[in-house]
Amino acid sequence: MGTSKVERLMNLVIALLSTHGYITAERIRTNVAGYADSPSDEAFSRMFERDKNELRDLGIPLETGRVSAFDPTEGYRINRDAYALPDIALTPDEAAAIAVAAQLWESPELVTAAQGAVLKLRAAGVDVDPVDTGVEVAAPSGMPGLRGSEDVLGVLLSAINSGQAVQFPHRSSRTEPYTVRTVEPWGVVTEKGRWYLVGHDRDRDATRTFRLSRIGAEVTPVGPTGAVTRPDGVDLRGIVAQVIGESPSGVLARVWVADGRATALRRAGTSLGPSQLGERAGEIVEVDIGPRDRLARDIAGYGADAVVLEPQSLRDDVVERLRAQSEGVDRA
Where does residue 269 rank: exposed (0-12), middle (13-18), buried (19+ CB within 10 A)? Predict the structure, then answer.
Protein backbone atom coordinates (compact mmCIF):
# COMPACT_ATOMS: atom_id res chain seq x y z
CA MET A 1 0.00 0.00 0.00
CA GLY A 2 1.39 3.42 -0.99
CA THR A 3 2.16 6.26 1.37
CA SER A 4 -0.78 8.61 1.98
CA LYS A 5 -0.51 12.27 1.08
CA VAL A 6 -0.73 13.39 4.72
CA GLU A 7 2.02 10.99 5.76
CA ARG A 8 4.18 12.08 2.81
CA LEU A 9 3.80 15.75 3.74
CA MET A 10 4.62 14.99 7.36
CA ASN A 11 7.75 13.11 6.28
CA LEU A 12 8.75 16.06 4.09
CA VAL A 13 8.33 18.53 6.95
CA ILE A 14 10.43 16.34 9.27
CA ALA A 15 13.15 16.12 6.64
CA LEU A 16 13.22 19.86 5.93
CA LEU A 17 13.29 20.71 9.64
CA SER A 18 16.00 18.16 10.35
CA THR A 19 18.76 19.78 8.33
CA HIS A 20 20.83 22.90 8.85
CA GLY A 21 21.60 23.07 5.11
CA TYR A 22 19.52 22.67 1.97
CA ILE A 23 18.34 19.27 0.68
CA THR A 24 18.16 18.72 -3.06
CA ALA A 25 15.01 17.44 -4.72
CA GLU A 26 16.83 14.28 -5.75
CA ARG A 27 17.80 13.47 -2.15
CA ILE A 28 14.25 14.13 -1.06
CA ARG A 29 12.98 11.74 -3.72
CA THR A 30 15.44 9.05 -2.64
CA ASN A 31 15.24 9.39 1.14
CA VAL A 32 11.85 10.79 2.13
CA ALA A 33 9.15 8.13 2.37
CA GLY A 34 6.40 8.63 -0.19
CA TYR A 35 8.43 9.91 -3.12
CA ALA A 36 10.41 6.83 -4.13
CA ASP A 37 7.28 5.29 -5.68
CA SER A 38 7.07 7.98 -8.36
CA PRO A 39 7.06 6.11 -11.70
CA SER A 40 9.07 8.79 -13.52
CA ASP A 41 11.06 11.99 -13.06
CA GLU A 42 8.15 13.96 -14.44
CA ALA A 43 5.67 12.37 -12.03
CA PHE A 44 7.97 13.10 -9.09
CA SER A 45 8.44 16.70 -10.22
CA ARG A 46 4.68 17.28 -10.39
CA MET A 47 4.11 15.65 -7.00
CA PHE A 48 6.92 17.59 -5.36
CA GLU A 49 5.71 20.92 -6.79
CA ARG A 50 2.21 20.27 -5.47
CA ASP A 51 3.58 19.37 -2.04
CA LYS A 52 5.75 22.50 -1.89
CA ASN A 53 2.75 24.66 -2.77
CA GLU A 54 0.64 22.94 -0.12
CA LEU A 55 3.27 23.57 2.57
CA ARG A 56 3.44 27.25 1.61
CA ASP A 57 -0.38 27.47 1.60
CA LEU A 58 -0.29 26.10 5.15
CA GLY A 59 2.02 28.94 6.15
CA ILE A 60 5.15 26.77 6.46
CA PRO A 61 8.19 28.92 5.58
CA LEU A 62 9.79 26.80 2.85
CA GLU A 63 13.08 28.28 1.62
CA THR A 64 15.27 27.57 -1.40
CA GLY A 65 19.01 28.07 -1.67
CA ARG A 66 22.31 26.67 -2.87
CA VAL A 67 23.34 23.38 -1.32
CA SER A 68 26.80 24.77 -0.56
CA ALA A 69 29.33 27.35 -1.69
CA PHE A 70 30.81 24.68 -3.97
CA ASP A 71 27.54 23.19 -5.20
CA PRO A 72 25.13 25.54 -7.00
CA THR A 73 22.36 22.92 -7.03
CA GLU A 74 19.08 24.27 -5.64
CA GLY A 75 17.95 22.79 -2.35
CA TYR A 76 15.13 23.20 0.15
CA ARG A 77 14.70 23.64 3.89
CA ILE A 78 12.24 25.08 6.41
CA ASN A 79 13.22 28.23 8.29
CA ARG A 80 13.03 26.97 11.88
CA ASP A 81 12.91 30.44 13.45
CA ALA A 82 9.95 31.46 11.30
CA TYR A 83 8.32 28.05 11.73
CA ALA A 84 8.35 28.13 15.54
CA LEU A 85 5.19 29.33 17.23
CA PRO A 86 5.17 32.14 19.82
CA ASP A 87 4.15 31.40 23.40
CA ILE A 88 0.56 30.16 23.52
CA ALA A 89 -1.88 30.58 26.41
CA LEU A 90 -4.17 27.56 26.70
CA THR A 91 -7.34 27.00 28.65
CA PRO A 92 -7.40 23.92 30.94
CA ASP A 93 -9.49 22.00 28.38
CA GLU A 94 -7.12 22.95 25.55
CA ALA A 95 -4.09 21.96 27.61
CA ALA A 96 -5.68 18.59 28.38
CA ALA A 97 -6.32 18.01 24.66
CA ILE A 98 -2.71 18.87 23.81
CA ALA A 99 -1.43 16.46 26.47
CA VAL A 100 -3.57 13.65 25.07
CA ALA A 101 -2.34 14.45 21.54
CA ALA A 102 1.24 14.37 22.79
CA GLN A 103 0.63 10.92 24.23
CA LEU A 104 -0.68 9.79 20.84
CA TRP A 105 2.46 11.12 19.11
CA GLU A 106 4.54 9.07 21.52
CA SER A 107 2.64 5.92 20.63
CA PRO A 108 4.87 3.11 19.26
CA GLU A 109 3.38 3.37 15.76
CA LEU A 110 4.20 7.06 15.23
CA VAL A 111 7.48 6.98 17.13
CA THR A 112 8.71 4.14 14.93
CA ALA A 113 7.76 6.00 11.74
CA ALA A 114 9.42 9.24 12.82
CA GLN A 115 12.58 7.53 14.05
CA GLY A 116 12.79 5.52 10.84
CA ALA A 117 12.60 8.69 8.75
CA VAL A 118 15.37 10.35 10.75
CA LEU A 119 17.59 7.28 10.58
CA LYS A 120 17.20 7.08 6.82
CA LEU A 121 18.09 10.74 6.43
CA ARG A 122 21.20 10.31 8.56
CA ALA A 123 22.23 7.25 6.57
CA ALA A 124 21.96 9.34 3.40
CA GLY A 125 24.32 11.93 4.82
CA VAL A 126 21.72 14.56 5.72
CA ASP A 127 22.67 16.58 8.82
CA VAL A 128 19.80 15.72 11.16
CA ASP A 129 19.36 17.52 14.46
CA PRO A 130 17.02 15.60 16.82
CA VAL A 131 16.68 18.62 19.11
CA ASP A 132 15.17 20.69 16.31
CA THR A 133 12.82 17.95 15.11
CA GLY A 134 11.74 16.70 18.53
CA VAL A 135 12.48 13.15 17.37
CA GLU A 136 15.10 11.29 19.40
CA VAL A 137 16.46 8.27 17.55
CA ALA A 138 16.31 5.08 19.64
CA ALA A 139 14.81 7.04 22.52
CA PRO A 140 12.76 5.12 25.06
CA SER A 141 9.05 5.19 24.48
CA GLY A 142 6.86 7.43 26.58
CA MET A 143 6.76 11.16 27.19
CA PRO A 144 9.92 12.74 28.66
CA GLY A 145 9.72 12.92 32.44
CA LEU A 146 6.58 10.79 32.50
CA ARG A 147 7.92 7.24 32.31
CA GLY A 148 5.74 4.96 34.41
CA SER A 149 3.13 7.69 35.08
CA GLU A 150 1.17 7.59 31.81
CA ASP A 151 -1.87 5.96 33.44
CA VAL A 152 -1.77 8.47 36.29
CA LEU A 153 -1.78 11.35 33.79
CA GLY A 154 -4.72 9.89 31.93
CA VAL A 155 -6.88 9.60 35.06
CA LEU A 156 -5.91 13.08 36.26
CA LEU A 157 -6.70 14.71 32.91
CA SER A 158 -10.07 12.96 32.84
CA ALA A 159 -10.85 14.16 36.38
CA ILE A 160 -9.77 17.72 35.57
CA ASN A 161 -11.95 17.72 32.48
CA SER A 162 -14.98 16.42 34.41
CA GLY A 163 -14.43 18.67 37.44
CA GLN A 164 -14.01 15.80 39.88
CA ALA A 165 -11.79 15.39 42.95
CA VAL A 166 -9.23 12.58 43.08
CA GLN A 167 -7.70 10.43 45.78
CA PHE A 168 -4.27 8.85 45.48
CA PRO A 169 -1.25 7.61 47.45
CA HIS A 170 1.65 10.10 47.42
CA ARG A 171 5.12 10.27 48.90
CA SER A 172 7.32 13.37 49.14
CA SER A 173 10.47 11.41 48.19
CA ARG A 174 11.43 7.94 46.98
CA THR A 175 12.59 6.88 50.43
CA GLU A 176 9.44 7.92 52.28
CA PRO A 177 6.19 5.95 52.68
CA TYR A 178 3.00 6.75 50.79
CA THR A 179 0.15 8.71 52.39
CA VAL A 180 -3.33 9.01 50.91
CA ARG A 181 -4.24 12.47 49.66
CA THR A 182 -7.56 13.87 48.47
CA VAL A 183 -7.11 16.68 45.97
CA GLU A 184 -9.26 18.98 43.86
CA PRO A 185 -7.17 18.97 40.66
CA TRP A 186 -6.76 22.25 38.78
CA GLY A 187 -4.25 21.26 36.13
CA VAL A 188 -1.09 19.40 35.14
CA VAL A 189 2.03 21.28 34.01
CA THR A 190 5.66 20.49 33.22
CA GLU A 191 8.63 22.23 34.79
CA LYS A 192 12.31 21.38 34.27
CA GLY A 193 11.47 18.06 32.61
CA ARG A 194 9.06 16.87 35.32
CA TRP A 195 5.26 16.70 35.47
CA TYR A 196 3.28 18.18 38.35
CA LEU A 197 -0.33 18.17 39.46
CA VAL A 198 -1.55 21.43 40.99
CA GLY A 199 -4.70 21.64 43.07
CA HIS A 200 -6.36 22.14 46.43
CA ASP A 201 -5.35 19.51 48.97
CA ARG A 202 -8.44 18.85 51.10
CA ASP A 203 -6.41 17.09 53.79
CA ARG A 204 -4.11 20.10 54.24
CA ASP A 205 -6.70 22.75 53.25
CA ALA A 206 -4.08 24.42 51.05
CA THR A 207 -2.80 24.68 47.50
CA ARG A 208 -0.28 21.92 46.82
CA THR A 209 1.80 20.52 43.97
CA PHE A 210 2.47 16.81 43.45
CA ARG A 211 5.12 15.33 41.17
CA LEU A 212 3.43 12.68 39.06
CA SER A 213 6.33 10.25 39.49
CA ARG A 214 5.60 10.26 43.25
CA ILE A 215 1.90 9.52 42.87
CA GLY A 216 0.93 5.87 43.19
CA ALA A 217 -0.87 4.13 40.35
CA GLU A 218 -4.18 3.88 42.24
CA VAL A 219 -5.67 7.29 41.33
CA THR A 220 -9.41 7.23 42.03
CA PRO A 221 -11.96 9.95 41.13
CA VAL A 222 -14.18 10.75 44.11
CA GLY A 223 -17.33 12.77 44.54
CA PRO A 224 -19.68 14.21 41.91
CA THR A 225 -18.58 15.54 38.54
CA GLY A 226 -18.63 19.30 38.11
CA ALA A 227 -17.83 19.87 41.80
CA VAL A 228 -14.29 21.12 41.18
CA THR A 229 -13.47 24.30 39.30
CA ARG A 230 -10.14 26.03 38.89
CA PRO A 231 -10.19 29.42 40.66
CA ASP A 232 -9.97 32.48 38.43
CA GLY A 233 -6.53 34.01 38.08
CA VAL A 234 -4.63 30.93 39.27
CA ASP A 235 -1.22 30.64 37.57
CA LEU A 236 -0.44 26.93 37.64
CA ARG A 237 3.04 27.28 36.18
CA GLY A 238 3.83 30.10 38.58
CA ILE A 239 2.78 27.95 41.56
CA VAL A 240 5.02 25.08 40.45
CA ALA A 241 7.95 27.37 39.71
CA GLN A 242 7.65 28.96 43.14
CA VAL A 243 7.65 25.59 44.86
CA ILE A 244 10.41 23.81 42.97
CA GLY A 245 12.26 26.55 41.12
CA GLU A 246 15.54 28.04 42.12
CA SER A 247 15.26 31.20 44.18
CA PRO A 248 17.30 34.20 42.98
CA SER A 249 20.85 34.25 44.24
CA GLY A 250 21.09 35.95 47.61
CA VAL A 251 17.67 34.86 48.93
CA LEU A 252 18.47 33.37 52.31
CA ALA A 253 16.73 31.10 54.79
CA ARG A 254 17.33 31.26 58.52
CA VAL A 255 17.53 27.84 60.14
CA TRP A 256 18.06 26.89 63.77
CA VAL A 257 20.44 23.93 64.09
CA ALA A 258 21.03 21.91 67.28
CA ASP A 259 24.56 21.74 68.66
CA GLY A 260 26.57 18.92 67.15
CA ARG A 261 23.94 18.14 64.53
CA ALA A 262 23.32 18.81 60.80
CA THR A 263 27.00 19.33 60.02
CA ALA A 264 26.44 19.57 56.25
CA LEU A 265 23.84 22.28 56.73
CA ARG A 266 26.22 24.27 58.94
CA ARG A 267 28.95 24.07 56.31
CA ALA A 268 26.59 25.24 53.58
CA GLY A 269 25.56 28.37 55.49
CA THR A 270 26.83 31.18 57.65
CA SER A 271 26.45 31.15 61.42
CA LEU A 272 24.59 34.08 62.98
CA GLY A 273 25.52 33.03 66.49
CA PRO A 274 24.25 30.76 69.25
CA SER A 275 20.56 30.41 69.98
CA GLN A 276 18.44 28.23 72.23
CA LEU A 277 15.22 26.64 71.03
CA GLY A 278 13.13 25.32 73.87
CA GLU A 279 15.63 23.60 76.14
CA ARG A 280 18.09 22.73 73.37
CA ALA A 281 21.25 24.67 72.63
CA GLY A 282 22.15 25.44 69.03
CA GLU A 283 22.82 28.23 66.57
CA ILE A 284 21.08 30.08 63.76
CA VAL A 285 22.48 29.52 60.27
CA GLU A 286 21.78 31.51 57.12
CA VAL A 287 21.56 29.33 53.99
CA ASP A 288 21.09 30.32 50.33
CA ILE A 289 17.75 28.78 49.39
CA GLY A 290 18.72 27.83 45.83
CA PRO A 291 16.59 24.87 44.66
CA ARG A 292 13.93 25.04 47.37
CA ASP A 293 12.67 21.53 46.84
CA ARG A 294 16.12 20.11 47.58
CA LEU A 295 16.74 22.36 50.60
CA ALA A 296 13.37 21.46 52.11
CA ARG A 297 14.13 17.76 51.63
CA ASP A 298 17.55 18.12 53.26
CA ILE A 299 16.25 20.06 56.26
CA ALA A 300 13.36 17.64 56.78
CA GLY A 301 15.89 14.82 56.86
CA TYR A 302 17.38 16.25 60.06
CA GLY A 303 14.03 16.03 61.87
CA ALA A 304 13.95 18.02 65.12
CA ASP A 305 17.66 18.92 64.80
CA ALA A 306 16.96 21.64 62.19
CA VAL A 307 14.06 24.10 62.31
CA VAL A 308 13.30 26.68 59.61
CA LEU A 309 12.67 30.11 61.10
CA GLU A 310 12.06 31.91 57.81
CA PRO A 311 10.82 32.22 55.11
CA GLN A 312 7.39 30.88 55.98
CA SER A 313 6.97 29.15 52.61
CA LEU A 314 10.08 27.02 53.18
CA ARG A 315 8.98 26.31 56.76
CA ASP A 316 5.56 25.14 55.51
CA ASP A 317 7.23 22.86 52.96
CA VAL A 318 9.45 21.24 55.60
CA VAL A 319 6.53 20.83 58.02
CA GLU A 320 4.51 19.19 55.23
CA ARG A 321 7.30 16.69 54.59
CA LEU A 322 7.67 15.89 58.30
CA ARG A 323 3.92 15.42 58.65
CA ALA A 324 3.90 13.05 55.66
CA GLN A 325 6.73 11.03 57.25
CA SER A 326 4.89 10.87 60.55
CA GLU A 327 1.61 9.76 58.96
CA GLY A 328 3.47 7.12 56.99
CA VAL A 329 4.93 5.70 60.20
CA ASP A 330 1.54 5.82 61.95
CA ARG A 331 -0.16 4.02 59.07
CA ALA A 332 2.55 1.37 59.05
Answer: buried
- Which positions ≥6 away from 148 have C-beta within 8 Å? 142, 213
- 215 and 324 both lie in a single domain: no
**pTM score, whole prediction:** 0.41
CB atoms under 10 Å from CB of 69, counted, come to 6
Q: Which residues of 31-55 are buried (b: 16+ CB within 10 A; e: fewer)?
A: bbbbbeeeeeeeebeebbeebbeeb
**Radius of gyration for the chain, computed over Cα atoms and rounded to the nearest angstrom:** 27
| Residue 28 and residue 18 in contact, taking contact as beta carbons nearer than 8 Å | no
In-domain check, residue 101: no
> Are the CB atoms for 300 and 321 separated by under 8 Å?
yes
Q: Clarify whether residues 75 and 18 are in a common domain.
A: yes
| Planar angle of CA 81, 84, 87, nearest 5 degrees | 120
**DSSP letter at 213?**
G
Element (H, E) at 44: helix 41-57
* Whether residue 278 is found in the same domain as residue 218: no
Query: What are 299-324's pLDDT values in tens digits?
Result: 888 888 899 998 887 888 888 888 77
